[in-house]
Amino acid sequence: MAEKNSHDGHRKRLKNKFIENGLDVFEPHEALELFLFYAIPRKDTNPLAHRLLDRYYTISSVCDAPIDELQKEFGMTENAAVLLKLLPEMARLYEDSRYKDDNLIELDTIGDQIAKKFIGRINEVVVVAMGDARGRLIYNDVVAKGSINSSDVPIRKIVDLALRHNAKSVFIAHNHPSGALLPSASDIRTTVRIKNTLSEIGVSLADHFIVADGEVLSIRENKLCTDAFPDYDF
Q1: Has residue 233 got a pLDDT over 60?
Q2: DSSP letter string over 5-64?
Q3: Which of 49, 73, 95 is the last residue of a domain?
Q4: Are 144 and 126 within 8 A, CB to CB?
Q5: Report field, pTM of the whole predicted structure over 0.90
């Protein structure tokens, strides 16, 4: 009974520490330990938190680990493994819910705003944001899963969305899970292809962003595709 009370007391102290200070005063293993309380109610989660970080080094890498790997190699239940996978997905939904559709588009911040759509994603996706004639954000969402350079680039879908929303400007973004931030030759060719297609319906391609390891690169700002952005001023 004493051991159970000691364990319960530790959990209570850790929860109170969070309530009073937030996670800023937590070491990574403590934050992970606290988070796992809610999926593993009857075991000490401290050793597991240490093992996970010893293996994956960061909390983001722990959350990106495959569910079956977490179960087989760490003895986690499906509920506990799923909870870890939910963490980055819920963070993305939280960020999504904070923006308003009538926000004015600012070139200095639109890339970072779009990049929030990639939080927790370990596979390639394509995101499109659109602005109206007044420069207000009217659309910002995933339009395809998979490489933007594949044969099934959703240009038709992008055009349909632009027409449906009466967009005047379009921003494209896709991620590089490999961590390489610079665009490939295929990325550049695809940028020009999308720009030319949108021009036919009177819509401007305002920028193409590459997202990798939490960083965002603007192809327009870095003058990496002058065929698409010769001298573009949004």
Answers
A1: no
A2: HHHHHHHHHHHHHHHHHGGGG--HHHHHHHHHTTT-TTS--HHHHHHHHHHHSSHHHHHH
A3: 95
A4: yes
A5: no
